[in-house]
């Protein structure tokens, strides 16, 4: 994976070209002050941003709440960002799924009693972002796996961190699929939730593959900046496929029911008509 491959997968790099094929979203630029806040110790929420979440009290020992209970703790405040976020949430129907340029804080959903990354206010978003290891990785070492990365490079000249708010959509995990593209050929498709068996996936395999293949040729191929990449979709119903995200083609991305050695060694000529489905 190279730096440009990762930059091509940054949300705002591709959203404009694929807006009609994916979930409605709003991108909000983040200041260096807010990024420092996300990386700071403790979980102190902005003072003027009440949260709608009820937190999982059984997990209190896993979070440093001590600073929030100290009278001398400085309460952070980001009024302009909070206003922009509140306005975006309203425009998106009142519930959103937050993420940064690449990663979402899905690993932090445990902190809410409903175990969901669905957010309805600024504080909900702050809590998830501050509690997520995925987000911390994005903020501290996004290019670590890039073979051409120079540690001396100033990342500020490459991109700007953004908060992405996506309209909340209830998605059945059995309808989500990860698609692997090598040299502009769709070589593999894997169900996203590989920890469960869904009988209807096997029963509908032919139509699922055909729907995703048609979507790829009609909406994705030749329009994405890289020749090798990974994209995620969900199949709402027969003949209706929606794009969720793009990821780099390489070990940085979870290969799910494949392994990367297998994918990297695939002969694209062998899968030019139909991808391997798992």
TrEMBL record:
<feature type="region of interest" description="Disordered">
    <location>
        <begin position="50"/>
        <end position="73"/>
    </location>
</feature>
<feature type="compositionally biased region" description="Acidic residues">
    <location>
        <begin position="58"/>
        <end position="72"/>
    </location>
</feature>
<protein>
    <submittedName>
        <fullName>Uncharacterized protein</fullName>
    </submittedName>
</protein>
<dbReference type="Pfam" id="PF07065">
    <property type="entry name" value="D123"/>
</dbReference>
<dbReference type="GO" id="GO:0005737">
    <property type="term" value="C:cytoplasm"/>
</dbReference>
<dbReference type="InterPro" id="IPR009772">
    <property type="entry name" value="CDC123"/>
</dbReference>
<comment type="similarity">
    <text>Belongs to the CDC123 family.</text>
</comment>
């Amino acid at each position: 994976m190279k730096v440009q491959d990762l930059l091509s997968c940054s949300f705002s790099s591709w959203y404009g070209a694929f807006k009609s094929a994916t979930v409605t979203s709003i991108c909000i630029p983040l200041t260096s002050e807010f990024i420092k806040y996300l990386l700071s110790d403790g979980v102190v929420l902005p003072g003027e941003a009440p949260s709608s979440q009820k937190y999982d009290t059984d997990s209190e020992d896993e979070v440093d709440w001590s600073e929030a209970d100290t009278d001398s703790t400085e309460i952070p405040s980001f009024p302009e960002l909070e206003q922009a976020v509140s306005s975006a949430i309203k425009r998106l129907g009142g519930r959103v799924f937050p993420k940064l340029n690449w990663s979402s804080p899905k690993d932090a959903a445990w902190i809410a009693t409903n175990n969901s990354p669905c957010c309805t206010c600024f504080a909900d978003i702050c809590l998830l972002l501050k509690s997520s290891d995925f987000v911390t990785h994005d903020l501290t070492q996004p290019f670590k796996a890039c073979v051409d990365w120079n540690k001396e490079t100033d990342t500020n000249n490459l991109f700007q961190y953004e908060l992405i708010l996506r309209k909340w959509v209830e998605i059945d995990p059995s309808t989500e699929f990860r698609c692997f593209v090598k040299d502009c050929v769709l070589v593999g498709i894997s169900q996203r939730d590989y920890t469960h068996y869904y009988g209807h996936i096997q029963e509908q395999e032919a139509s699922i593959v055909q729907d995703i293949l048609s979507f790829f040729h009609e909406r994705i191929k030749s329009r994405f900046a890289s020749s090798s990449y990974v994209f995620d979709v969900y199949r709402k119903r027969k003949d209706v496929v929606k794009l969720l995200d793009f990821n780099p083609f390489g070990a940085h991305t979870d290969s799910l029911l494949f392994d990367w050695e297998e994918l990297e060694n695939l002969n694209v000529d062998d899968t030019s008509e139909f991808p391997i489905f798992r």
